[in-house]
Every structure is written in structure tokens, then in C-alpha cells.
Write a structure and sequence with these properties.
The chain has 400 residues and is α+β, with helices and mostly antiparallel strands. Helix content is 44%, strand content 12%. The two termini are 35 Å apart. About 2% of the residues have low confidence.
Amino acid sequence: MSTSAAPDAEAVDDFRREVRAWLGANFPPSLKGHPALLSGHDELHGPPEDHARWKAAIAGKGWGVPTWPVEYGGAGLSDEQADVIAGEMERIGAFQPIMSMGLMMLGPTLLEFGNKEQKRRHLPPIARSEMQWCQGFSEPGAGSDLASLRLRCEDRGDHWLLNGQKIWTSYAHHSDWCFLLARTDTSVKHRGISFLLVDMETPGIDVRPIELINGISHFCEVFFSDVRVPKENLVGEVNGGWTIGKRLLQHERTGLSRLRGAKAHVLDLVPIARRYQETDADGRLADGDLRGRLAEHLMTDHAYRLTLERRRDEGEAGTKPTTPVSTLKNIGAAMGQQRGELAVELVGLNSLGWAGDGYSAEELELTSQWLHSKCYSIYGGSHEIQNNITARHELGLPSD
């Protein structure tokens, strides 16, 4: 994404010192070790005023989207400089406070496919985390087979008219805007889909939250009844939305992998094991089987993180990454679910609660994360769909 030339080693060292000094002066110590959040409405860990101060500081530097052009709210830095910022944040237990679906998915998509006015209007608010976006892709009959979507989009001359339904729309009840795929031609499948930007305050939109197994309601149903969308909110060409949607999904899967990596700090299994499990005279977990499975998970997790870094380096070197996004998405989902299962096993009976007295805040959070991890293998494209993509596009296998 960055158009900046890579700096030399001395310049990188100078930049690293600059980043360390700035983080030391601006990152609130009270937020150390807390996770990045996907939405401004996720539960905050730490003082809210410190979150607000940290977000404003990052937005002011353009470091929420460091490689974006300055005119769109970024810092115009190189990929290598962005990596320095991320690495220095990780070193001190800091997190990226401007993570959102707008930043992770729509922003890079608009940079590639949006026109100048769409970029000027939408990217700066995303970079400052002032505007929340949701993704309107899945429908009751179009989940795994997304191209079967039926949300009808009719050309009414001076506007588009939307009728139909979306489902599993994360944070729709808190979002200002929605990027979505809609059917503009019913005679063809993939080539009859367009990509639109929709203001969630538009009359005719009805949002209904869905309560999940862990009591959280960030998924929603969204109903569209004669919703008028301005013509200028079409991204790309009419019936050209499938290509744009596929590229956005690549950004989503990459972002989800990074987000799961950041949230891993919340479930640091080693200290959990030491607090809840008996140890032998050598300080090891007394349960040999559990100790072995924990060690295997930690080694695999380390290998996964190294693979993510290698893929990033390959991209920066201009070579085709050797590990496809779909494969990484599935591995990351499996790692997150395995981490949750191990955490619950380590905590034992103390992981049985999900509300009320008798359990610590950490135990309740751990149980909630374990329940939430069940959706990792579905959202962002199911496990089976990712395997199909890998089989066809990476291994060259037939679709039937």
C-alpha cells in the first residue's frame, strides 16, 4: 500500500529511536498489555480517559494508518517504518487503538478502487476513528456461497433502491455507515453484483441485534425496505462489485489474523497455568499430558507468528507470498480456538461461570473469549470455503 521508498538501515535506526521516545511520552502505562479492539463499542480494559488520549495521540501522528497518504489521514511512511512502529508497540505492551472494520477492510479497498471524492470523504474519518463502518456481505441464503446474495439494487435514475436483508452484520447497531454487496443484475451470478456505501441513518434500514452464546450481541440482522442510496456511493463500476469484494475479503482475513495475534496477550497461557495448576518439584505442570499439549500449542503458535512475519517480508520484497491468506486464516482460527480450550482446561471449574458472583473478572473474561472463539472458523469466510480457495487457486485442483 505504501508508495514511500524503503529507508536505509541508519534511517531505520533513527526512526526507531524517534518512535521509542514518542511512545514513551504518549502511551499511557495503565493500558499496557491490553488488547486492540475491533470496534469503539468493545469493552474497554483500563481507564476510558487514557484510551481516548491514546487514540487521539495516534490519530494526530497518522500512525493508525502509517502507510496511507498524508492527505487521507495517514503518515505516508514506508512498510518498513510501519513495522518499526508495530514492533515498538509490541515491545512495550502497547496496542493499536484505531483498529476498526473501516480501517482494516474498507480503507485499503477504497485506496485501490475508490474515486478521488470517495477517498477524500471517507478515509480521513476512518484514520481518525471518527466513523464506524460495518460489512454487509452475508445473507440468510448467501453465507458460504456469497455470490448467491439477493439484496436487490435497482437503478432508479437519480438513485439506487435497495430491498432485502443482510445477516451476521457485526456492530451494525453501532455503525454510521455500511459497505455492502448488492444484486444489480439477476441474469448472472458473479457479474451481477455491485459494491455500495450506505449511510446507516438512511430511512428504511432496520437493525436487529442477535444475542450470541456468550451473551454478547455484536452480530445483527439488517433489513432494507425501499432504501434510497445516492448514485455517487457506488464504488467501481456497476456489476463490478465481486472483484472489489474479493479484494476486501483478503484484507479482512489478513486483519483478523493480526487481531487474533494481538488479543493473544489476553490469554497468556503460561501465567494462567501457574496460577491454577499444581506444579512438581522442578516448577513444571504436574499433569504431564497437559504440560505436553500446552508446550505443543506454544511452539505451534510461535511458528504461526513467524510465518506471518515471513509472509509480510515476502510482500515487502515484492515476491509472491508463499503462504496464502486463506491458509493463514484457517490456521489462525484453529490456534485461537485451541488457545481458548486450553485456557478453560487450565482454569478448571473456575471457568464454568459467565456472569454474577463467585468468579473473578479474569475468569469471566476467559470463559467469554472461549465461547466467542467458536465463531473464528466461520466469520470472515468459513473453514471449508478457505480450503476450497486454497485448493483451486494455490494447488490448481478442479472445483468439482
